[in-house]
Specification:
Helices cover 44% and strands 14% of the residues. It has twelve helices and eight strands. It has an eight-stranded parallel sheet. It is globular and about 45 Å long. The two termini are 24 Å apart.
């Protein structure tokens, strides 16, 4: 029996917006979606602010009962201790975060995060009741050397080592060659990799988990192309970078069903 997966539109702010800007942004985003009568059953929406913004976002979401989710951009593999600058999953849980991004290509590239590091962080997220958004993807060099899906599949397999699928997770396929380039993968390319990733989920965690887990596409996502990705059977949403900082553009991405007649 086919499982209905609610599309998930996630906005990764990266290192942008201070806590005051975050308050204004979340308020305006909520107003824009309310004005457009967005049905959150059509698409779940979450933002991923910098850590210093999270308490402000938590307070606003709780006080105004906003139907927006939020999460962190990273977490430590450690729960506590002498790890200067690290952020424990316990801290994120106390801020009522539901999600945390793990293994983003920028973390892998600039901070040297390995597949083993990603796996340790997935396990840490689960220890604190957080849903990891596990990022996988290949560079242009990877694509040329190994072909489509080989690197993302290997990364996902490593990330799932010892993971309990019943605790929930989201997978985000982000072709590094497309991020910020303005040149997205084609829907067919995204579907090919998403299907392969779902296959890995089935092998490692079982078919029930595989069918329930949302697989997102990320890489130069915009309002003009989002619907074409979400028409693919194995693409369940998007991890949006730069476009998530533009309220009009991001709210238009969220409302993909209406603005393009998808």
């Amino acid at each position: 029996m086919a499982v209905k997966r609610t599309p998930f539109i996630a906005g990764n702010w990266k290192m942008n917006l201070d806590h005051l800007q975050a308050i204004a942004f979340v308020q305006k985003l909520a107003w824009a979606l309310a004005d457009a009568k967005h049905d959150f059953a059509d698409a779940e929406v979450a933002v991923f602010p910098p850590f210093t913004d999270l308490r402000s976002v938590q307070t606003l979401v709780a006080a105004d009962s906003l139907p927006l989710g939020y999460g962190a951009q990273d977490l430590s593999a450690h729960d506590s201790g002498a790890y200067t600058g690290e952020i424990s999953g316990a801290f994120l849980a106390q801020l009522d975060c539901r999600y945390v991004i793990i293994g983003h290509s920028e973390r892998r590239q600039y901070h040297g995060e390995t597949d083993a590091d990603v796996n340790a962080k997935v396990l840490a997220a689960h220890r604190h009741g957080l849903v990891p958004v596990v990022c996988v993807g290949e560079t242009a060099e990877d694509l040329e050397a190994h072909g489509p899906s080989a690197v993302p599949v290997a990364q996902l397999r490593a990330a799932l080592e010892g993971v309990d699928g019943s605790k929930g997770l989201v997978i985000a396929y982000e072709p590094v060659w497309a991020i910020g380039s303005g040149q997205a993968a084609t829907p067919a390319q995204a579907e090919q990799v998403a299907a392969a990733l779902r296959g890995v989920l089935g092998e490692v965690l079982g078919d029930e988990v595989a069918q329930a887990t949302r697989v997102l596409y990320g890489g130069s996502v915009k309002a003009a192309n989002i619907a074409s990705f979400l028409r693919e059977p194995n693409v369940d949403g998007a991890l949006v970078g730069g476009a998530s900082l533009d309220i009009d553009e991001f709210s238009s991405i969220v409302r993909f069903k209406k603005h393009v007649g998808a």
